[in-house]
Amino acid sequence: xxxxxxxxxxxxxxxDSLHNYAMLLAxxxxxxxxxxxxxxxxxxxxxxxxxxxxxFKAWVFAIIRNTHIDRQRRRKTSSxxxxxxxxxxLLQSPLFSIPLAPEDIxxxxxxxxxxxxxxxxxxxxxxxxxxxxxxxxxxxxxxSSIIDRPIGTVMSRLYRGRNLLRTYxxxxxxxxxxxxxxxP
Amino acid sequence: MNCxxxxxxVFPYVDGELxxxxxxxxxxxxxxxxxxxxxxxxxxxxxxAYVVRLRPDPTPPHLRDRINHFLTGLVEQRARTxxxxxxxxxxxxxxxxxxxxxxxxxMQLAAVLERGNTLDEVVEASLDQHQxxxxxxxxxxxxxxxxxxAEDWFRKRVDxxxxxxxxxxxxVALVGARISRLANxxxxxxxxxxxxxxxxxxxxxxxxxNQLGLSEKPRFKVVKRRGxxxxxxxxxxxxxTLVSEIGVRACxxxxxxxxxxxxxxxxxxxxx
Lengths: 184, 272
Fold this sequence. Notes:
heterodimer; B: alpha+beta; 9 strands
């Protein structure tokens, strides 16, 4: 199959996922379209090196992440402005160490959209692994290779992220019926 | 297994990420512990109610259009590139450019030869690239390919022959490869691992090697610099540079340890 046609077919199959991930990382947030396009160009140029045994979207996720890091370096962005340096949200907290049973949430019959809103509110480093696992369905090992961190780090961020999500979901509902949307 | 261990592993269990043995231990624990079984059942219910129904946000129509436009542009750009090669004027322009490059390159080469340090420059450039390859500062274009697949990859991209040794030795691995620049020429840079040591092999076209102006003898130019061993030689119409920190043992990437040439051992040629 022609390289361009094959590449187009791959992209068409996972554009929503790629768009989501670029939106999660981009700073400023409105830059996510440029981040996505620059990443797709790099992916196309390196398409010959793509290992067909791996998930295509995971390969492009890694490219998006590396492109984001390159762009931050080029701009000499301070670490505070970089969501991937947002370690404050990962500090040890008793809240994160208590596994919250989801019973209350199940009883309240929350909507899927409210769960999605809760994920958007998570600190970026937790949100990243929660989205890659719970929305994209990637394995811990694949996530580990995308974020270039050990599997233990993936598990720890996932554990904390899911518990924090549950605290959001058991919060009293806001008057307007919507959770505050976190920065994309 | 106790209840605390079980609770710490409940997410990997629900995600299907636990090894079979640990999974079996957890299931044996559930059979005896109502409290832990309840926790897992709730997690599975939460997953079925919400997690499996989560989807990425749909791409906005304007962005979808922009990406489609961008991808269509790739097709057109490719078609233009293909058509362009059939235009006679492009051949003439290319010839003029190549001539100009040849003249400028020749002048640069003459300047280098006047300085009399061509070998030093190649050694330094090879060392620099070897260190960068080892540190990941020069990322490979290809990784995890067999020697034959790597040769095919180069065949489509460089206009000189790249032949790589068969990797039949358990202690030798082809880590990655890239197209790089050395001695003002495009070269194939191959990163090997021999046991735990990095060995870099640079393969350059014969013309580039000839422009180095190196003497024919000794056949293997051997230089020790800053703890590294650099060997430069030509075989038929191709030039080679081998860089490592392990002396003559680096040659074992291609040759058996007891290999001989004209009855002489590797050591006698190289004397590293």
